[in-house]
Amino acid sequence: MSDAILSPAQTARALPFSALAQEIAALLQDPTVAVPPRIVQPLDGGGSLFVMPAADARVAITKLISFIPGNAQRGLPTIQGDIVVFDVQTGQRVALLDGPTVTARRTAAVSLLAAQHLATRRDGPMLIVGAGVQGRAHLEAFREGLGVQEVWVSSRSSASADALVAHAQALGMRARRVDDPNAALADCPLVVSTTPAQQVVLTALPRSDAFVAAVGAFTPRMVEWSADVCRHLAQTGTLVVDTRDADHEAGDLLQADIDVSALPTLADVVRQTQAWQDASRPEGGPVFFKSCGWGGWDLAAARCLRHTQQG
């Protein structure tokens, strides 16, 4: 890779969802990957500063982003920042990626990879709860990687929901707005929740054949799904977390008093480890995939960029 400062559009073009999901799967099986715990610095006013380093045998990255929930009311992005990519052998900076774009695309690609392994019904309709940046990224990822053709969108902002519906229709999908996401759960075998996670939004049970990607809550204090629903899913379905970092970050599950440390991770699923085999329920039931984020996903994005540029 040559030294490059990528705009948001250039960053997006370098990270196709399907290729990024494949890179994430490869990263989970690479023994050279090292990802220390991320630093989360609280900021005055309720925001946070995240510092997330990661490296493998060839590439090292540091992600530096701010998360300011109140920016939605200011007309500003809630996530801002950059990802610096270095060559491990020379120490040279080889790229600077747009942080919010990488965050959106790698998070959706993680959900896509989980769905590719865990979803039993891929035909939809797909319910997206939360019509912001992550809602849009997940819509595009599941269309590209799973072939989803029908999407229902729910948001506390009707304008945001209508905008995402229009975007889906422009992509050739069937799409409509739904005002009650809990009622819609009965009709949707694919569910993605990407709300601001400041309060419980989802209180109804998913279908018995549902795959749920719960993305919005990524700190212990954040929550989208009610504790009763999470406890019910723990008894009747299968819970999977993205990484072991979720042990202390998965707000939905922690607030339901679920032992997150006992749950299998996406790496267990990809590697088909004993932990995953023990967690699988032969009788089926819904799958609840809890995603909290990890610096390794950003490293996968840097690896994907390298392959894109070399190809």
UniProtKB/TrEMBL annotation:
Gene3D superfamilies: NAD(P)-binding Rossmann-like Domain (3.40.50.720), ornithine cyclodeaminase, domain 1 (3.30.1780.10). SUPFAM superfamilies: NAD(P)-binding Rossmann-fold domains (SSF51735). It comes from the Bacteria. InterPro entries: NAD(P)-bd_dom_sf, ODC_Mu_crystall, ODC_N. This is Delta(1)-pyrroline-2-carboxylate reductase family protein. It comes from Limnohabitans lacus.
